Amino acid sequence: MALFSDPAVGIDDPMLRRAFGLAERGRGTASPNPLVGCVLVSDGAVVGEGFHAQAGGPHAEVVALEAAGDRARGAHAYVTLEPCTHFGKTPPCVDRMLSAGIAEVTIGMRDPNPEVSGCGAEALAAAGVTVNWAADPGPFETQNEAWLLRLRLGRPFVRVKVALTLDGRPALAARRRSKITGAGGRHVTMRLRSEATAIVVGASTVSVDDPELTVRDENDALAERSPRRIVLSRTSAPNPRACVFSADRGECVVVASDAASPAALEPLVRVGARVLTYAYRDGLSGALRAIAADGVNDVLVEAGPSLFTALWRDRFIDELVVVTAGGMSGNAGPPLFLGCADAEGQDLAPVLHPVETGIAQGDAVTVWRQLDQEPGLGKGSVG
Ligand SMILES: NC(=O)c1ccc[n+]([C@@H]2O[C@H](COP(=O)([O-])OP(=O)(O)OC[C@H]3O[C@@H](n4cnc5c(N)ncnc54)[C@H](OP(=O)(O)O)[C@@H]3O)[C@@H](O)[C@H]2O)c1
Q: Is the predicted pLDDT of residue 225 greater than 70, yes or no?
C-alpha cells in the first residue's frame, strides 16, 4: 500500500489503470480473496465496470457484465487478474464472459495458483477471444501482494505501525498510555486501519492503552466499516471489559495459545469475542497461521515493544510504518526493541530499507520494507 505515491503510475493502459483503481475499492473487505477490478469497453466507451467487494459476493467480471447487459456483446474486457475457470463460491467467470459475447480481454496478471494459472486465458483464447497481457504485471502483483504472500507462505502480510518519539521511544514511560504523535500520525493510523483487513494488538497493549481500534474521521465519527480487531496473547487473557470487546465496534477475535487457560478465555466468548487457538510451541508463526486460516490476507499490527521484538526476531515484518513526532521521551520511555543487538545475534546489517518517506502535518512518516522487495516508491506528504 503506497502512502505517498500513486501505485498505478506504471500502468500505461488507461483502461487497465481504471480497472486497477476499481480493484482498490475491495481493499480490506475482499480477503481472503484477491483484489480484482474489471472494465468493459465497447466502441470506445465504458459500458460496464465492477470490482470484487467480498468473498462469496460476485466477482468483478460478473459485476461489470451485469452492469453492461447486452452492451457486453463484442466488448473488450480489461481485468486486473486472470479470470477464473473453476467453481468456487460462484461459477467460473470465463463461462460468463463467453456467454456474454466478450471479444477481447486484456489481463493484468496471471492467477498464481499452479492448478489454474493460464487456464482462464487459454479457455478464452480457445473460444476465439483475443487475449492480451499487461506489458508489466508488477503493479498488479504489488496490489495483490498480501493475497500472493498468504497463498505462498500460509500467513498474512504483516504491516507494523509504530509511533515513536524523536529519540525512538514508543511510550513516555513503561506500561503507560502515551500520546506520542499529533494530527498527522492520527491521520496515517486511520488510513492504515481503514485499508486493513484486520488490526492486531498485543494483550498487554489492551490492558495498558485500552484502545478501541476503530476507524474515525477528522470529526471523530465512526467509519462505515470497522476492520476485524484481533488481540494476540500467549497465556494471558485480556480483560473482557476492555473497549476492544464493545459489541458495536465490529468483530473482535482473540488469538491465544493452547497454554492459555480455557476458563480465563470463557468470559471473552460471553462478551461476543471469537477465540482462535494455536500451539504454544509454534509461537508467532502459529498465531499468524491461525489468522490466515481464518480468512485474513493482511494485518496491521500496532505493536508495543514485546510484540515488535518478537515480530522482528522472527522476520515477520513485511512492511514497517514508523511515525515520528518531534518530542523527546528520555530514559523513562522503554526502547522499541527489547534485548541487545549483539547478544541476540542481530548485527547492524539492514534487514529493512526505506521505500517511502513523507510528512503528515507535524509528524514524519517512513515506510520500510524487506530488503529483497522492490524499492522505489516516492516521497510526498499527506494530511
Ligand atoms: N508507540 C506505539 O506505536 C505503540 C503501539 C502499541 C503499544 N504501545 C505501548 O507499548 C506498551 C505495551 O507494550 P508491551 O511490550 O507491554 O506489549 P505488546 O508488545 O503490545 O504486546 C505484548 C503482548 O502480546 C502477546 N504476545 C503474543 N505472542 C507473543 C510473542 N510471540 N511475543 C511477545 N508477545 C506476544 C503477549 O501475550 P502474553 O501476555 O500472553 O505473553 C503480550 O500480552 C504500552 O505502553 C503501549 O502504550 C506503543
A: yes
